[in-house]
Amino acid sequence: MSDAPSDDDRRHDDRRHDDPSDDDSPTADRLVETIHATGHEHVTAAHASTFEFTTDDWLTPAGDCILAVGADRTPRDFDPAFKRACRDVDATITATITVEMAETTHEETPETAHEETIVGRGDPGLTLVDDRSMVGRTSDYTDDERTILVDADKAAADLDRDLVAALADGADATLRLVVEH
Predict the structure, then answer these.
(1) Domain residue ranges in the chain
(2) How far, in Å, are 30, 81, 110, 169, 171 from residue 106 at the CA level?
(3) What confidence tens digit (pLDDT) does each residue in 103-134 have?
(4) pTM for this one?
(5) Could you give the CA distance from residue 144 to residue 171 in angstroms, rounded to a whole number?
(6) Looking at residue 14, what is its pLDDT?
(7) Rounded to a whole number, what is the distance in angstroms from the first to the last CA of the chain?
(8) Alpha-helical segments (H) within the chain
(9) Which CATH number is 28-180's, of 2.30.40.10, 2.30.29.30, 3.30.70.270, 2.60.120.630?
């Protein structure tokens, strides 16, 4: 049996690790997952107790907790070590939502327009197996495969309205989840 990492290990490793010079890179006490998605014209971010990213490419006006569609990853894709860390009741899970400005004719790459940080915690009831969406909750409700953190200090309705407007204009968004234990 070889000690070389399997293809599955490399896929997880590639998704977890961003730029090594990033001060938020994974360590023994900090694990990171990054999700890329896009805003949608129906984003209202009006929900008072949750926020959500989904892989769906559509959104109806009723989806008032959904911040972005077309997510490139779901909880099912998360590294097993990240999932285990999230199940620790003492874990702090930080969700950073970054929304990029639309590219202009004067710039080659987008600049960060808005960033919002939501802090919650882990829970032994987090299954992190959903293959469609992920939800952060201000409550301690975990009876759902989509829940990624509980006891969040913010929900969709608490987010900066300029960030929400950019998402409603279809801006690209990044959800960076960091679990520290």
Answers:
(1) 28-180
(2) 37, 42, 10, 20, 18
(3) 544 555 555 589 999 999 999 999 999 999 99
(4) 0.82
(5) 28
(6) 41
(7) 32
(8) 7-16, 80-86, 161-168
(9) 2.60.120.630
